[in-house]
Amino acid sequence: MKVSTMRRIDSWVGTPLCLIASGFLAVARRLFTFSVPSDTPKTILIIKLSELGALITLGPAMRSLTNGVGRGNLYFLTFGESRSLLEILDYVPQENILILRTDSLMHLIGDALGALRRVRRMRIDCSLDLDFFSRTTALIALLSGCRRRVGCHAYFGEGPYRGNLLTHRVKFNPHVHVSQMFEILAKAVEKNAEDFPRIEFFPGPAEAPRDRFRATAAEIAKVQRMLAEVGAGAQDTLILLNSNISDREVIPLRKWPNDRYVELARLILAGIPNAFVLLTGSSQEASTIARLEATVGHDRCRSVAGKTTLRELLTLYSMSAVMVTNDSGPAHFATMTDIDVVVLFGPETPLLWRPLGDRVSVIYRGMACSPCFTVYNGRQSMCRSNVCMDIAPSTVYEVVKLRAASRQVAGQGRN
Description:
It is a single chain. The protein is an alpha/beta fold. The chain has 2 domains: about 5-195, Glycogen Phosphorylase B (Rossmann fold); about 220-410, Rossmann fold (3-Layer(aba) Sandwich). Helix content is about 40%, strand content about 15%. The strands form 2 sheets. It has a 6-stranded parallel β-sheet, with helices on both faces. The chain has a 6-stranded parallel β-sheet with strand order 9-8-7-10-11-12, covered by helices on one side.
């Protein structure tokens, strides 16, 4: 299923269902006595369906939850494409990951019903909705049978309507990094329902991910063979360009044009000694990125799109000097390795969504109309001309050159 289709279902179907469910709950509360347990929950269902990059920023929240109930008592409900990354992050036991397939509506509904049956059989105490203002996840939390339901609530219209289905209604804070907001939601699990929207908790500073990727010897050997096949030598400085072509369907306005990547690749090859440019991407992007490689027209610029698993891609990151990408999942994945990352922001604000770490450089024009994407509008915009992403390749090149030079001074070569 396309992301746009799922968003329409969430809006057009989810909104009336949240309204109806809220009405039933309001009547039930008048007829019956419902009490929210005041003791600390013993088991927690974490709901985070989408956004792979956001999983990297969950570190502080997951540590808080693990300290509270233990890793074995945490369950994670997510879309199928998140499984590989969750297994790397190891937040919860693999058998506690509940997967929803998105290849068809029937699979999605069937998996959701199966997951809900399992959750209700286990009598999980608490649901924690980390998808902010999704109506679908609010309904899943209600149907899970959890008596304590934690998530974001639009008190005075500060976000899309998702009914009154939560017991612990957290106000979304747009002035902290998303990693801090996730930690706030995790801390809300411990609070009493009547305290909200007040939360007497002070989030710590946004910090780089503590979770580090460690490649196996077999993965390193596999990536080294791939590099040899495309002609990259052991002494080459690997520069990765992630054009993220698939973002045209997900969030097209944050795409940096392909011709800019072509110009940047040529600048890198002409100006950085021993530079070897690799074009990364998924298997679905391979044919388009192959055309990008042909347009650059240089034997030291090669595509590796679709040639790696996620773990092998992270292994490649750990062998490379610098990566350039727009605001996307790979920008966050890279912070689990020692690669330097240059991230191009436009319709979203780096104040909330930037990858964290000293090796991250953000380029953001900061136009008057930016950011136009927020959690409040479901990342929708009337803009059809993303001049906020009109970033000159020469500007990006100067940052790449500086980052590559700093690594050479520090003696950080290929692993």
